[in-house]
Each structure stands twice: as structure tokens, then as C-alpha cells.
Amino acid sequence: MKAKRSSRNISIALVCVILGLALSWQFQSIRNNAKVMTLENQKKDDLVVKILNEQKNNENLRAKLNELQTQLSKFENARGNSDENLKLLSDEIQKLKTVAGLTNVKGRGVVVTFSKDDALSVEDDDLLFVLNELRATDAQALAINDQRIIDTSEVRGAGGYINVNGRHVLPPYVIKAIVDPDDAVNALNMVGGVFEQIKVFVDVSVQKSDNVEIPPIGEELIKTDKLKIVENDK
């Protein structure tokens, strides 16, 4: 009898162990599935953000086209009026100077700050990574430590320093952008995006602002001596 009872107890114990393992595996499987579903939902959200950004870019391009067509009509209508022509040309010059980065500008945007404690770990690629993401979200003006960034600006490491427009900039590194704040923050913080990759090495943060001010670039940094105007054939 004792042998049978002992055998029965062992069988019950084995069944309990097997049931425990099965429940543990099932619980782990549920957790893994939940993680996968969460990641898929995040990827869907990121895709929605990208689609909305592209739609906004298309709308901006249409608005710019309409603006240029309106300007063309104004120039054509003002051919016989020298004063009106002069004002239109003056307004156009001011607009071109703004686009070229030769004027002070301000507007809503974001401020990205790299921690001073991680200054030695910050590389030029980290700054370029953030700049490119902000450009992709339709930033209209950019600066690093109040050095205006234009198409010909250089951002590169040099002997333990980072040069912007040929000048040393010292930490903490601060990037300012006039851009839609919500779009910029979402783009920088998306899963697998800029911040997720940079934060492995350095501490970086972004703040929205209703009043971002960006200074002009020095005119001496805009060089056109190697450029020649191509005349249109008529």
C-alpha cells in the first residue's frame, strides 16, 4: 500500500510540475504577444505620422506654387507703374534675403539640447542627424549655438571641437528650429528614430517654444565668386 501511495504522490507531483511549466510557458507567450502587438501599434503610429508629414509637405508646395503664380500676376499687372514695380521688387528682395538666411527670424518651433555632461561624447554626426530630421519635418530656419544653418553650412568635428560655418562652437550644443513643434517632437521621438539612437551614447532633450529666435548668417560666409549666371535662350 505504501509503495502505491508513494507512486501516486509522485505522479501527482509530476502532473503539478508539468501544469506549472505549461502555465508559465503560456504566460510568457501572452507577454511576448502583448509586446509584439505594442510594437506593431507603435510602428503604425509612426507610419501615420510620416504620412501626415508628407501630406503637409505637399500642401506647402501647393501653397508655394500659388504664391509664385500670384507674384507673377502682380509683376505683369505692374509693368506700367514704376512705383509699384519698385515696391514689388523691394518686397521680393527682402523675401529672398530671409530665405538665404541673411535676416533675423522668429517663430514657433523647438529647442534641442545636448547635455553638457556628455559633451565629449557628442559627435558632428549626432548634430547632423538631428538637423536632417528637422529638415525632413519642414523646418524653415535652423541654428546650432546661434550659428545659422543654410544649405552651404558645414558641421564637422575638428581636433576635439565641432566646427559650424568654420567656427568653433562650445558645449552645451543647442539646436534651434523654426518648425511645427508637434511634428518635430513626434519625428525626433519616434520608435527607431533619431533620439532612440543618439540616447544610447548621450543625453539629449527637446522642448517646444512659441518664440524661437534665430540670427542671420554672416554675409562673408555666402560665397558666389565661382558662380556664373546661365542666360535663358530666347
Automatic annotation (TrEMBL):
Q: Does the keyword Protein biosynthesis apply?
A: no
UniProt xrefs under Gene3D superfamilies: Protein of unknown function DUF881
Q: Which Pfam families match?
A: DUF881 (PF05949)
* InterPro entries named in the record: DUF881
- Keywords annotated in UniProt: Coiled coil
Give coiled-coil spans as residue ranges.
44-85
Please give the family membership noted in the entry. Belongs to the UPF0749 family.
Name the chain's protein: Division initiation protein
Organism equals: Ruminiclostridium papyrosolvens C7
